[in-house]
Amino acid sequence: MSSGFTVGLVQTNSSDDVSANIAAASGFIRQAAGQGADFILTPENTTAITSGREATLATSLPEDAHPAIPAFAALAEELKIWLLIGSLSIKLEPTKAANRSFLFDPQGRIAARYDKIHMFDVEIPDGQSYRESATFRPGEEAVTADLPWGKLGLSICYDMRFPYLYRSLAHAGASFLAVPAAFTEFTGRAHWHVLLRARAIETGCFVFAPAQCGTHVADRRTYGHSLVVAPWGEVLADAGEEPGVITAHIDPARVTEARRMVPALSHDKPLKVAEVAPA
Q1: Choosing a second label site near 148 at 20 to 30 A (CA), which of 66, 94, 102, 249?
Q2: Cα atoms in the Cβ-side hemisphere of radius 13 Å centred on 40
Q3: What is the maximum alpha-carbon separation in the chain?
């Protein structure tokens, strides 16, 4: 694990216009790099938030044909940064896509890919309904990648509700957790900060959570509040509710310090659940 670095989180209000979203995200990435960020992350659905299965599939493209990939690869190389694009909708077959993160190194090469594992199939009490499994094929593998400062564990949005994923990433050596999201406004107000702080505390990792914000097509509303959370659980930066950029200095030594104070990762035990018959 090497010396410290500056992380930059991009907060966007993506539309259903892929080209416009690439341009907007690129501008924010340049802004973060101008503020000294060495590692920059964008939210889930960076290049398109649509309404309905057919519209989502229409804006999905195979990896080798998606215009965002060469655009962001060139930007990473130009700015000499590590760049995580929170997710793109990648066409796998005519009726299925992958919700896929891409990590680019400073040479513009794809260093890692991650397909969202947990599908957001939920009826939200504010009237919104989501059925990701109708459009997306879930990923099957947890993924880590080596950064110059330590190991990164990848995840996307709804994954954050499944602590075993993050514990597995931490046991695999992750010091940093990426949680790009398009979190709903309704659930965000109740759960966003609590869940992300819990994932940091229970793993002793830094959490980087770039988010979508505002109102999108079909009145879909996302919560914003992109967060950088330290391993002890304190919030180092919060982007609020408007598009923009936040940065924070990251000292990887704080991971070791947090895990020394509470070595919970070394105390895991496999358990059997006893089933007690009624008297």
Answers
A1: 66
A2: 30
A3: 70
Q: Which DSSP state fits 211? A: B
Residues belonging to the active site: 44, 116, 157
Superfamily designation of domain 5-262: Carbon-nitrogen hydrolase (3.60.110.10)
The H or E element that residue 177 is part of is strand 174-178
Could you give the CA distance from residue 173 to residue 144 in angstroms, rounded to a whole number? Answer: 8
List average pLDDT for each run of 10 residues in the chain, which is 279 residues long.
87 98 98 98 98 94 98 98 98 97 98 98 86 96 98 98 98 98 97 98 98 95 98 98 98 98 96 89
Q: What is the pLDDT of residue 127?
A: 76
Domain boundaries, the chain: 5-262
Which uninterrupted H or E stretch holds 194?
A: helix 185-203
Cα end-to-end span (Å), the chain = 55
- The CA distance from 158 to 165, in Å, is 11
Token pair, residue 198, equals 């819990």
